[in-house]
Amino acid sequence: MAATHTKRRADVDPDFFRAEAAGLRWLRDGGGPVVEVLDVGDDFIELQRLASARPGVDSAREFGMALARMHDAGAARFGSPPDGYGGKQYIGNRRLSSQTHSTWGEFYAAERVEPYLAPAIDAGFLDADDAEFTRRACALIAAGTFDDGEPPARIHGDLWSGNVLWTPDGVVLIDPAAHGGHRETDLAMLDLFGCPQLDAVIAGYEAHHPLRSGWRERIPLHQLHPLAVHAAGHGPSYGTALGRAARACVAAAGER
Predict the structure, then answer these.
(1) Directed axis angle between helix 183-192 and helix 219-231, to 10°?
(2) pLDDT of residue 141
(3) According to the model, what pLDDT value does residue 1 have?
């Protein structure tokens, strides 16, 4: 019998672990290299236990290719939750909107950045100037300034390095906030928190589905979401980083 790992919390909404399970299954259905869900209930999720290994170039390239395939599996709309799931969604311990949109810019500004600004301000982690620039960036994003016509991708949604596990059989992903989004958002989060062997991951990704020109310059745009989430509860350094990324977006819009 395979070894298992059970996460259990009595203080969460009954949808908390069910959202995680639905996201993992949806990403797996799209070809994603995710941990296997064995069981789930109101206060627990049971997963396959994973062994650890050192990050390697070959595993990184294979991960990049698998990530591109998963993204290409797509979603119905921007913001769509996992197929067949109608409950609440979360990123970490915070609620994640399931409101959908036909364009990425409208979705990203309204559902992935703006909801976290008031909590960040109330916590004292986002000052007035940084908040104002973030709102200006959101207005430009919502207006379609950065829309590129790419269809909704099936993204992990919380792809920081702690959710990328290196095993003897390759990379396995855990703890998603899965939804229909832009594929560059997952890559920007890998960059934000320092994924090992990231250059090899990108090389593998582009071998399957090349990225659109200028994607590196758009990293601050796609980091607005994780920075806003962190600014809402993890300290003023994230508010400062959010303001810096927002200024980069405003500057980029002026260059167009």
Answers:
(1) 70
(2) 98
(3) 46
Q: Measured between alpha carbons, how far is 91 from 130 in angstroms, rounded to an integer?
A: 23
Residues of the chain where predicted confidence (pLDDT) is lower than 70: 1-2, 255-256
Would you state the pLDDT for residue 254? 79
pLDDT of amino acid 256: 54
- Per-residue confidence (pLDDT) for residue 3, from 0 to 100: 85
Question: Any residues with CB less than 8 A from the CB of 80 and at least 6 apart, and which?
Answer: 98, 100, 152, 179, 180
Give the pLDDT score at 54. Answer: 95
Contact 185, 225 (CB under 8 A): yes
The confidence score (pLDDT) of residue 193 equals: 87
Rg from Cα positions in the chain:
18
Give the span between the Cα atoms of 253 and 165, in whole angstroms. Answer: 36
Q: Which of 127, 143, 167, 89 is nearest to 253 (CA)?
A: 143
176: β partners? none
Q: With 0-12 CB in 10 A as exposed, 13-18 as middle and 19+ as buried, what is 1?
A: exposed
Q: State the pTM of this model.
A: 0.94
Burial of 139 by CB count in 10 Å (0-12 exposed, 13-18 middle, 19+ buried)?
middle
